Amino acid sequence: MATTHTINVEKRNDEGKGASRRLRRAGFVPAIVYGGELKPVSIQIQHKDVWHASQNEWFYSSILDLSLGGDVQKVLLRDMQRHPFKQLVLHLDFQRINENEAIRLRVPLHFLNQESSPAGKASGVVITHELNEVEVSCLPKDLPEYIEVDLGELKTGDIVHLSDLKLPKGVEIPELRLGKEHDNAIVIAKEVREEVEPAPAEGEAAAAPAAAAPAKAPAKKDEKK
Q1: Taking Cα atoms as reference points, which of 178, 182, 99, 110 lies closest to residue 143?
Q2: Is 114 exposed, middle or buried (0-12, 13-18, 19+ CB in 10 A)?
Q3: pLDDT one-digit tens code per residue, 166-205
Q4: H/E stretch holding 92
């Protein structure tokens, strides 16, 4: 069962850029909640709470419980605006969910046992992660926070595809319904051969030092006075 993540919010009455600037100076982040049968609602969240949550993977790939004075609404984070260079969150968009309707969301991949795999132990093998997250479709109650990819048996030359993932019950990858050409690679274990320059032929090897040797200047004859 997925962990519940609750974020406390307050209703925001003032609108506009000026009001948003005042909120940020006071240590809040302006945000909006929309979707479902309810009207959009402007809210504000303590910046310290948002910043702490934004450092966690679950903030971007889990269903969140927004608590407004005890009234809890289940939402997904749909957009987050950050300051270009300061450690500041400027605005958030949350979308309400219907627990009886399937949702689509990108969830992270967690790679396990790579170093202990045959490919991980082999020398001259490079293991690349082609994807670090994947889009899934499921009911909200079935949404996983992440999907594990066990690489314990990975061998040199192996390719792990989307279709190789072990998905939780009720979860599917919509991209796979589009055909085999959409069964993208997730992990590739490739042997890297070091390129060796061919040795020069015997004639070339012998000629090279001679060509490289500087020509000697002719000896000067003694001038007779």
Answers
A1: 99
A2: middle
A3: 999 999 999 999 999 999 999 999 988 766 566 666 655 5
A4: strand 89-96
DSSP string spanning 29-40? EEEEEE-TTSPP
Number of C-alpha atoms within 13 angstroms, CB side, residue 166?
6
Angstrom CA distances, 118 to 126, 184, 209, stand at: 12, 23, 47
Reading the block at residue 92, the tokens are 């958030």
Amino acid at the residue 63: I
Q: How many Cα atoms sit within 13 Å of 111 on the Cβ side? A: 20
Q: What does R_g of the chain's alpha carbons equal in angstroms?
A: 31
* CA-based nearest residue to 107, from 74, 150, 147, 166: 147
Cα distances (angstroms) measured from residue 197 to each of 36, 194, 200, 206, 210 = 65, 10, 9, 18, 22
CB atoms within 10 A of CB 200: 11
